[in-house]
Write the C-alpha cells for this entry.
Amino acid sequence: MTTPRPGQPVRGSSTGRPLMAALDLFGRRWNLRIVWELHQGPVGFRALQQRCDNMSSSVLRQRLTELLGAHLVEQLPDSTYDLTELGRGAYRALRPLVRWSDEWAEAVAADG
C-alpha cells in the first residue's frame, strides 16, 4: 500500500485534494495513535510499540514507513522516532477533537 500524497488519487477520492489524502492517511489504523504517542518527544521502536498497546511489530513498521513517507515522523540518528514540524501540526489539529470527544463522552454518560 502506498503512502497517500496530496495531488494523487487516494482511497475514496480520485481528486488528490490534500484533505482527502490526509483522511486516507489518518484513516489507516494506528496512524493517529502513533502521532498522538509521539507528541511527548522521541521514543524508540519498542517503547512506541508498548505505548500503542503492543501492536505487532510488522504493523508498526508499516505505519512508521507511511508516516515517514508523509513527512510527519522522522527517525533520528539514535534510531528513535519523533514528530516533524508537520507531525506536530497534525497533533495540534487533533486537540480540538480530543475536547469534542470529552464532551461526547459526557453526553453519552448523561443518557445513562
Notes: The beta strands are 73-75, 81-83. The radius of gyration is 15 Å. The longest helix spans residues 85-111. The first strand starts at residue 73 and ends at 75.
